[in-house]
Every structure is written in structure tokens, then in C-alpha cells.
Amino acid sequence: QVLLVESGGGLVQPGGSLRLSCIASGRFFEIERMGWYRQSPGMQRELVASSPAGGSPIYANSVKGRFIISRDNTKNTVYLEMNSLKPEDTGVYYCHGHILSGIGTADYWGQGTQVSVSS
What is the pLDDT of residues 5-34, one digit of tens each? Predict the structure, then answer.
């Protein structure tokens, strides 16, 4: 079984910063892609940033220049550095992994961590 566990959410004022972390654990062969999605109130879940193995990261237009995604493959961990946060960044942030294990390649999700941007 593959598990993704996020940490690092919280309440921050506009213009502030937060850093999210997500670690993948369990039995698997390769993390092909790892990233972050968010779901804001009344909205569908959307891609925030994704980091493919050996490739360049991709970002939603709304976060380009403010958010940075990075991976530590030795720790099976992905990070999301969020800067210049805006109220519209508020939502539940979900870690996502496209992971190859003994049952094949599948999508896995963390439980979500709340990010609230408010004064």
C-alpha cells in the first residue's frame, strides 16, 4: 500500500509564505510524478504544481512566479514553497503521486492540508 502524508498547512496573512511537505511511504518502485492540487470552497480540485521524474515542473498560471515545487527523491518527498500568498490561494491542498508499484501505475492522494490566507 502506498500512503501520501502532507504537512505544513495553516493560517497566514496575505503576502505571507508557507511551505508544504508530502512524503510517500509504502512499497513501490518509482514515483513517476508528484505534485499538488487544491480545492477552494465551491470549486473543483485543480492542479497547482507538478514535478515529473527527470522533467521540468509545471505550474498553474495563477501561481507562476510565487510558488516553487521541489522534490527530494532520496526521501520520497515533495515540497511546495508558497510565497506572496493571496486570499484566493485559500483551500485544501492535496498531495498527488503517480506511482509505480507491484499492482502497476496508479494515482494516490494525501488526506489534504488546509491553507487559509486571511488578514
Answer: 999 999 999 999 999 999 999 999 999 999
Q: Helix, strand, or coil here: 88?
A: helix
Question: Where does residue 4 rank: exposed (0-12), middle (13-18), buried (19+ CB within 10 A)?
Answer: buried
Q: What would the grid cell of residue 32 be?
A: 513517476
Alpha-carbon distance of 1 to 4, in angstroms, equals: 10
The three-state DSSP-derived secondary structure of 26-73 is: ECCCEEEEEEEEEECCCCCCEEEEEEECCCCCEECHHHCCCEEEEEEC
Cα 88 to chain centroid, rounded: 17
Torsional sign, CA 10, 2, 108, 30: positive
